[in-house]
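Progress note, project year one: complex with pyridoxal-5'-phosphate.
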Amino acid sequence: MSKIPYKIYLNESEMPTAWYNLRADMKTKPAPLLNPGTHEPMSASDLAPVFCDELIQQELDNDTRYFEIPEEILKFYKMYRPSPLVRAYCLEEKLGTPAKIYYKFEGNNTSGSHKLNSASAQAYYAKKQGLKGVTTETGAGQWGTALSMACSYFGLDCKVFMVKVSYEQKPFRREVMRTYGASVTPSPSMETKIGQKILADHPGTTGSLGCAISEAVEVATSTPGYRYVLGSVLNQVLLHQSVIGLETKAALDKYGIKPDIIIGCAGGGSNLGGLIAPFMGEKLRGEADYRIIAVEPASCPSFTRGKFAYDFADTGMVCPLAKMYTLGSNFIPAPNHAGGLRYHGMSPVLSQLYHDGYMEAVSVPQTAVFEAAEYFARVEGILPAPESSHAIRAAIDEALKCKETGEEKTIVFGLTGTGYFDMVAYEKFHDGKMEDYIPTDAELEASFATLPKVE
Ligand SMILES: *Cc1c(COP(=O)(O)O)cnc(C)c1O
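Model obtained:
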């Protein structure tokens, strides 16, 4: 067969036209969201004040295998998709590994990450419902940036609560959001009741994702014509992100390539859930087998050290309870530099699959992640996001194992975004000032003790 090109692109006609719902092939379905007060499963009407109607249908549907992608979203996707699947020849050569390494690069759009795949879908459905706008939270800013782009395209108002420490430390992302017309408020703020309470209880706090979620939900549910949208964790987000995996599989199939190992970083689980979707589907149906590896920061190890239990999605405890691998909604991870991976919980879909033994997880300390990031930048050219670099770390480690054993495994990993807005983190790394914070068992136990008791 001819040499595999450096970049495998799909033609427009080969692009996926439907999202794949992995839940349809799961024997044990992810546990339902529960009402935080009554502990009863949330129905569509319970969720209606918070989320858009059509997204609620997607959220609750464990059976429909394919959801057609609306024409308007396909049009938007075509501005920056298909994303390339790159054969990392230079990296392979430099490592001296017999492994074949591919990465799916999602950083090729202005927001700089995969998050635009779901932001555009969520903005479209909000507009279709005739809403005025949406609210959300953002940590490091990737989700807020993606959502503000999608909202300006579809003509929706966008209110972003940005974790205060990022708001102050990442002025450039904030200004990108404002360029696309979003309003950006540092969280916790005095604009919401929950923000006022958090500020009274913890004066001087620099905020957290859980806290910003509570504020965004409060504004959405108390402002007519607004709903709340979330950039990860939820089933609907994994559904939209399946476009990553479907493109990857189509590109590999074009050249008859079958991966052995599929690797992705895991914050709330959306890029990984999307990347693995069609492969995991084959695995669940018994048609093929793959090793699937989630990579998380050692400072926020939901899979590798968390508990599989019902927990709050937010610090304010206003959101539904989700059954997931969690460190406890009170857990405030150390300020590591992969903001997009600093969430206490994990997608219920991936949590169930991990619990049932369909995938593995590893955690990596951040200096090892930045070593891999810099190595990759120098060899492959792309300056990776710190989040994405978790996957790079694991892919390099697997490729080095192949070097020892001589196995020619095919490794595919998700390169979720670029790191241009993360240069302060790179600076710390270069100056030798980066620390590897790892929570103690006692800290985790204290947080587990606050998990809600659900029968
Ligand atoms: C948000 C983000 C992640 C982590 O989110 P998931 O929902 O776990 O995919 C990873 N990489 C980048 C670049 C991000 O912006």
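The first helix runs from residue 44 to 47.
The two ends are 57 Å apart (CA to CA).
No further modelling is planned for this target in the current period.
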